[in-house]
Design brief:
single chain, alpha+beta, 5-stranded antiparallel beta sheet, two-stranded antiparallel sheet, 19 helices, globular
Length: 488
């Protein structure tokens, strides 16, 4: 493997150096015919990387993990996790590598990480590879989430490997390079706690505090402050998911980040008809990770983090449990506050409307949307038109118009601001049928549908002529049958 260092790439090995017990030094498999499919030039520039160099043969070798800058130490990270409620003590990066950390132009440390880079000791019988389609999905959806203002890992590039991948059929292979504040997860802490090595757990917590804060208060115990911070960031994150209609699909503890960023875009999708019971994952038979369950599951996952941190919270286990419980009890209030602030904006209401008024109005509206199976995204965007006086577009979306008219009459007395609504209610999201259409074309080598879709969803609030189909819901029969798959 080459160890040549390109002049503008400096990768640190901080995680590998500080927490060697939580990573296995490893290297990516070679690709017989690597070819750059997508490059996020804006993100590259944020990271201080030259997009032109990344597009070169040497740059592409970095993006598949075959060119490792001097000083870097790629590792497959170890973590445990509850998957659909069942505990797995040893998961880890079965097909992924942390190449190292970059310092971006704002001085922030950010992970550079690969998916589909080959089998590791955590592969559990898998081939360690990834297909073009799922990697394109993560690129499209994660960049759409970023454009919507939702904390997320981001996609730097997708590189076709020239190696076929065997799934239900033969598919072209690819590697995704992604960027995150870190890849520390609740499952990372579960793994460290399970080792019984208290010093390792403490070093992990210190590493997380240094990467993600919060700054130590004058009196608060630092590990309690860490737990409070993660609880708050996850409550805010899931509230944002709910407001935009995002369904994660695999909210396992190994997919719950310490940073409060969305991670893992496997079986994910956006709501079409509003229904809290919506499940898009092909493997979620019981609806554990349904849209409406996401806040409850987030709190459950955070309870697993609290359990892992107990030895650091207090030497007295009973006192530690008491402190952890107090932290977790803050989740519902933090979540509800974040959701209500978001709904206030989605409904175009200023501070003159009381929280109680907004909450009641929002709850009543959701009942109308659910009863009438109204498209989530289209409704709120059309509601902005109604705020300007034209109610017909939004009325056309609802079968029970008398019920909607009664609600509209109450809402309009509060003088909603249509311009505010247009700034927070997107025109374009990654519509599920359009994502599948783009991925199918991309798998066959035609990237034009992917780039057109990206053009829409990475500028989601500005309505543009020629993009009408990107704002339209899927046909009812297509939406009703839609499922996503993990792509492993």
């Amino acid at each position: 493997m080459s160890v040549l260092t390109p002049p503008d790439v400096v990768l640190e090995a901080r995680f590998a150096r500080e927490l060697p017990e939580l990573g296995v030094p490893w290297q990516a498999v070679d690709a017989p015919d690597p070819r750059l499919l997508l490059l996020n030039e804006g993100l590259a520039e944020e990271l201080g990387l030259d997009p032109r160099w990344l597009s070169s043969p040497e740059g592409v070798r970095l993006l598949i993990g075959r060119l490792v800058p001097e000083g870097a130490s790629p590792v497959a990270q170890a973590y445990a996790g509850h998957q659909f409620g069942g505990y797995s003590p040893r998961l880890g990066d079965g097909r992924a590598l942390l190449l190292g950390e970059l310092t971006d132009r704002e001085g922030r440390l950010r992970d550079l990480h690969l998916k589909g880079s080959g089998r590791t000791p955590f592969a559990r019988g898998g081939d360690g590879l990834a297909a073009v389609g799922p990697m394109l999905r993560e690129y499209v959806v994660s960049e759409a989430m970023h454009a919507l203002g939702i904390p997320t890992t981001r996609s730097l590039a997708v590189v076709a490997t020239g190696r076929p991948v065997v799934r239900e059929r033969m598919l072209p292979g690819a590697v995704l390079s992604r960027v995150a504040s870190s890849h520390l997860r609740v499952g990372t802490f579960q793994y460290a706690r399970a080792t019984g090595d208290l010093e390792l757990l403490r070093r992990l917590a210190d590493h997380a505090r240094d990467r993600h804060g919060p700054p130590d208060g004058p009196s608060e115990q630092p590990y309690l402050a860490l737990l409070r911070s993660v609880v708050a960031s996850q409550a805010e994150l899931v509230a944002r998911w709910m407001l935009v209609g995002f369904v994660h699909g695999v909210m396992n503890t190994d997919n719950t980040t310490i940073s409060g960023e969305t991670i893992d875009y496997g079986p994910c999708a956006f709501l079409e008809a509003f229904d809290p019971r919506t499940v898009y994952s092909s493997i979620d038979d019981q609806g554990r990770y349904a849209y409406g369950n996401q806040p409850v599951i987030a709190r459950w996952n955070l309870a697993r983090l609290a359990e892992a941190l107990l030895p650091l919270l207090d030497d007295d286990e009973s006192r530690a449990v008491e402190l952890a419980t107090e932290c977790l009890e803050a989740f519902p209030e933090t979540y509800a506050g974040a959701w209500l602030r978001g709904m206030r904006s989605k409904l175009g209401l200023d501070g003159s409307a009381t929280d109680a008024t907004v909450s009641t109005l929002a709850d009543d509206l959701l009942q109308v949307l659910e009863a009438n199976r109204v498209d989530h995204t289209s409704f709120y965007r059309s509601l902005g038109v109604a705020a300007r006086g034209d109610t017909e577009p939004v009325r056309s979306l609802v079968l029970d118009r008398p019920a909607l008219d009664r609600w509209l009459a109450r809402w309009r007395t509060l003088a909603p601001d249509g311009e505010l609504m247009d700034r927070v209610n997107p025109v374009y999201i990654p519509r599920n049928h359009l994502v599948e259409e783009a991925l199918a074309a991309g798998t066959k080598g035609d990237l034009e549908p992917v780039t057109r879709l990206l053009g829409a969803v990475t500028d989601p609030y500005r309505e543009r002529p020629g993009l009408e189909r990107y704002a339209e819901p899927a046909p009812t029969d297509v939406a009703a049958a839609y499922l996503t798959f993990c792509g492993t």
